[in-house]
């Protein structure tokens, strides 16, 4: 392991360090916690860095497939070596252009969110003379589960309402260019504990079997979603799911007796569990300031670097806890970034031993929803550097750049 201080010196701050050995460990642990027969999709949005994607694919052993939702992510996963056949394409606003591109690149599996979405997938497939396998995404009224991010059971742009899906049987089963391969569920993110995760999967599997009955379609593929949790920008370890494998197998045996032979193939998905603990965010202290009895530790990276999307309420709130924090010692400080908005706060009431300009803070478990879930463009600061290591070796160091391209006119000279 190369020291963070050395990496910060070499590549500057703010920067992320991703350790591919930890990505591999998370992938192996999660796959080991699931029955051998299931497929696992990596949600590229959690961290689409090319080296991370490549590691997720695996090397000969069991790897992940890729779940994507844009042509940007499509290009990223194809570059990382995934094939069209590895990909599940999701999202409520898929356009004819992006569908055509995905189909042309060999993608055949789509999660569809509405009758209009299904029709559009079919039209794009028809134009290319191929057939798309579609999973009807289900917005199901769920079992009560302790979770921080619930996705379904309310009016939503995502999925077909479970209670009226069967009424659409005719409408969905005969759309040219498509076949209904099965269902896609994603009821929650970041489950509180293994028991609630298992309860949610049980509920989902029961629901899937019920809908198979009602729709009268023999499913070939059912994606039962995720909810695997990970610590976020504070200390802690990835959970170990010791019961899940047996519990899933038992529930599947009950409701889909032929699931081990692919009748239907069962898939699950994860973002944060697979990458969260691989990443560390390095930020430098620029200034310390007192105001009306409060201490502000001003950093060289804020919500432009980490967690900027959390204001939307759909990713976890930002509340970073640097490794350097010292419980109980000294005055609590506000950790703020350099942006010209009072919203640029990374942490409140963080106790640091004796912060001074030039100090390096390391924020653990920052590998998921980091760079690309931040306000990268706001105030025009450079994106953070992303350093990829594998154990003691630096693999790459790079940065996303913003460039303006003109569709009309040109830059003033
Ligand atoms: C975001 C997303 C995921 C990943 O969620 P995590 O909480 O990071 O595991 C998986 N599936 C779908 C459909 C998503 O939108």
Provide an overview of this structure.
The chain is α/β, with parallel strands linked by helices. It folds into two domains: 33-270, Alanine racemase (TIM Barrel, Alpha-Beta Barrel), CATH 3.20.20; 277-398, Lyase, Ornithine Decarboxylase, Chain A, domain 1 (Beta Barrel). It is 25% helix and 25% strand. It has ten helices and 19 strands. Strands 1, 13, 14, 15, 16, 17, 18 and 19 form an eight-stranded mixed β-sheet that branches. Strands 2-3-4-5-6-9-11-12 form an eight-stranded parallel β-barrel, surrounded by four helices. The longest helix is centred in the middle third of the chain and has 22 residues, at 194-215. The radius of gyration is 23 Å and the shape is globular. The protein starts with a helix and ends in a 15-residue tail after the last strand.
Per-chain topology:
Blueprint: H1 4-11, E1 15-19, H2 20-32, E2 39-43, H3 50-57, E3 65-68, H4 71-79, E4 87-89, H5 96-104, E5 109-112, H6 115-128, E6 132-139, E7 147-150, E8 160-161, H7 169-173, E9 178-185, E10 188-191, H8 194-215, E11 221-223, H9 244-255, E12 265-270, H10 272-275, E13 279-291, E14 294-299, E15 332-336, E16 345-351, E17 360-363, E18 385-390, E19 393-398
Parallel strand pairs: 1-18, 2-3, 2-12, 3-4, 4-5, 5-6, 6-8, 6-9, 9-11, 11-12, 14-15
Antiparallel strand pairs: 1-13, 7-10, 13-14, 13-17, 15-16, 18-19
Helix pairs in contact: 2-3, 5-6, 8-9
Bound molecules: pyridoxal-5'-phosphate.
